[in-house]
Amino acid sequence: MNVTVNGNAVDITLEDEKTVGDVLRGLETAFAQNNATTIGITLNGTNIGADAFDAAAQTPLADDTAIDVTVVSEADVTAAFAAEAKTSRAIAAKLEQIPVQLQSGKDKDANAIISQLADLVDGVCHTASLAALFPPLFEKLTIAGKSVSEFFAEFSDILNDFRQALEDKDNVLIGDLAEYEISPRLTALADAIAS
């Protein structure tokens, strides 16, 4: 049997384990003791989704069984948030320059910042979804006095307005939203996730 965790081989000594589920339960217990949890399982090269988990767990162990487990820890989430906080601050500062860039014909520079914003929002949403796997961490996270879901619901509305302004090529609205709505929220986000 070959077991890897996040791509690294793990030396496991079998005791009474007879099925893949037995091995996975033992791994999950060890992960929980280290504030970590499983977010993906591959069995013999096949990704096992939630709907196929029960059948896969009953698979008998064999010498050629290959189990690859993807794990995330609370420390991983905290480190990702810290990195995203730095990026949020940098992009917040850049967003304040968009009105000037649009007025001076530097649309290419403004578009590069907008692309960075889209990547950041995608990354933070992914990290926040992982943080939800650790309730003590997630429940104490507030952004500008709001829960994560409240903050992102409000932010989503603003981002939709921003997207519409981009489609309409309304440079005045793009600049106003970037400078006065999105930038301060990114700063508040950075303050919350940095800690």
How would you characterize this protein structure?
The model has no long low-confidence stretch (mean pLDDT 93). This protein is of the alpha+beta class and 195 residues long. The longest helix is centred in the middle third of the chain and has 25 residues, at 107-131. Helix 3 (74-95) runs antiparallel to helix 5 and helix 7 packs antiparallel against helix 8. It has helices spanning 20-33, 53-57, 74-95, 98-103, 107-131, 135-139, 148-168, 171-194, and strands at 2-5, 8-10, 36-43, 46-47, 66-73, 142-143, 146-147. The chain contains 8 helices and 7 strands. The radius of gyration is 22 Å and the shape is elongated. Strand 1 (2-5) and strand 2 (8-10) form a beta hairpin.
Question: Which percent bin holds the helix content?
Answer: 55-70%
- Summed over residues and divided by their number, the pLDDT gives a mean of 93
Using only C-alpha atoms, the radius of gyration works out to 22 Å
The dominant shape is elongated
Q: What is the count of DSSP helices, taking H or I runs of 4+ residues? A: 8
**Major β-sheet annotation:** 5 strands, mixed
The order of strands across the largest sheet is 2-1-5-3-4
Strand residue percentage: 5-15%
E-strand count = 7
Spatial separation of the terminal alpha carbons: 41 Å
